[in-house]
Amino acid sequence: MKLKGIKIKLHPTENQKAFIDKNLSLNRFVWNKLLGMQQDRFENGGDYVNAYGMHYLMKALKIEFPFLKEAESTSLEYTSDDLDDAFTRFFTKQNNHPRFKSRKHPKNTYKSKCINHNIMIVDTHYLKLPKLGLVKFFGGHRIQDKIKSATIRRELNGSYTATIHVEHEPKVFEKTGNVIGIDLGLTDLVIQSDGFKLKNKQFERSLAKNRRQWERKFARRHTQALAKIEEAKAQGIDLKLSDFKNLHKAKEHIARISKKIANQRANYLQQYTTSLVRRFDLIAMENLSTKKLMQNHHLARSIADASWAKIKSMLTYKCDWYGKELILVDARYTSQICSHCGENTGKKPLHIRRFDCPHCHSVGIDRDVNAANNILNKALA
Ligand SMILES: [Zn+2]
């Protein structure tokens, strides 16, 4: 059995929104309290209190701060487990030291555990959640398997979503006997060894005008707000940026558009990777180093980078679910080697799009398709 997360959009009532917001702040309170306690202990030469210890402390916290009883109780345990994870990653040098959650950088998720069917789908359009009751949503048909937990999230654009974690018995796709190598590019996001190319669609273009309009509105409202704050200050009135509702609204609009773009792109990649895993038993691709990817700041490049990283992670879990194989290879020299005879023909300038081999005299192979074939050959070797 594996766990699978299914993300859905929630349509909570005002009361339900208020509870989610309150529960988020209670979880933030617990996070900060436990983190503060760990720091105090450290400064006084004490040992780190592990996950069990923190669970135990929760009882004491609930007595000291009775309002914590209003929280969804399993979410508080998950929060202490999260903190333990954050510390573990810090101790193993994978992360920075856990930080306090502020109003500006709040906690935007909490997780509830499914106990005795307290999380379930009712009439396909309602999700029953602990302490919240029935929350409206669409797409209940997607959740068929046994529910283990749910993560509730307040998105940056002010909407609410839930990721439902279900037990998932992976279906195995039929074996096809086919193998494929894929090379990654900019104009074409993916070039397959069989010659197929996946276009790098510019999803932001269709919504760019709208986003620019809102960005301009935001900039204008921001300047106006700053001027008004100055004005008010002269009269002894203390105003903050957060007092300007329409400024906040513009920000939400921008976030909503960005989200839409991200969703379109994610769908595009989901469809592509699923069809790839369905059609091929073995997929070979370059082993991307995420560290290298993070260093590029050029926009087109950074979008492609993000897509490549997504393709890699989608193929990783889909191959695992559906019984197929993903092989990651070192992509060095794949643009220089002839995929027919294996001879390294040296560096070529980027404007040369066709690969002609002086050794075996094969001519006219598309440069990127040649590279994709080399990636496949490396995986099969
Ligand atoms: Zn050759």
UniProtKB/TrEMBL annotation:
Keywords: DNA recombination, DNA-binding, Metal-binding, Transposition, Zinc. It comes from Trichococcus flocculiformis. Residues 165-296 form the Probable transposase IS891/IS1136/IS1341 domain. One of its GO terms (molecular function) is DNA binding. One of its GO terms (biological process) is DNA recombination. Transmembrane segments: none annotated. It holds the Pfam family Cas12f1-like_TNB. This is Transposase probable is891/is1136/is1341. The lineage of its organism: Bacteria, Bacillati, Bacillota, Bacilli, Lactobacillales. In the C-terminal section; belongs to the transposase 35 family. InterPro entries: Cas12f1-like_TNB (IPR010095), Transposase (IPR001959), Transposase_put_HTH (IPR021027). Coiled coil: none annotated. Residues 308-375 form the Cas12f1-like TNB domain. The keyword Metal-binding applies. Residues 1-46 form the Transposase putative helix-turn-helix domain. The keyword Coiled coil does not apply.
